[in-house]
Design brief:
3 helices, 62 residues, mainly alpha, 0% strand
Length: 62
């Protein structure tokens, strides 16, 4: 849970920086967030969660 929370915080900071610098516009960012919420309710969500856990476990082993 700690890793997923910190991953969300890092992603939020990146999105905020991209919005502030103008590299990411507001409407595409909202569309991507909506897509993420819709994707989280599908059957592929556990696979994505497991892939992220595998990558973070692999990175933390360094």
């Amino acid at each position: 849970m700690v890793i997923s929370l910190s991953l969300v915080v890092v992603a939020a900071v990146i999105v905020l920086v991209l919005l502030r610098t103008g590299y990411l516009r507001l409407w595409p960012a909202l569309a991507a967030a909506l897509f993420g919420f819709c994707l989280a309710s599908t059957g592929i969500a556990p696979g994505i969660r497991n892939a992220i856990a595998s990558v973070t476990g692999w990175v933390s082993s360094f």
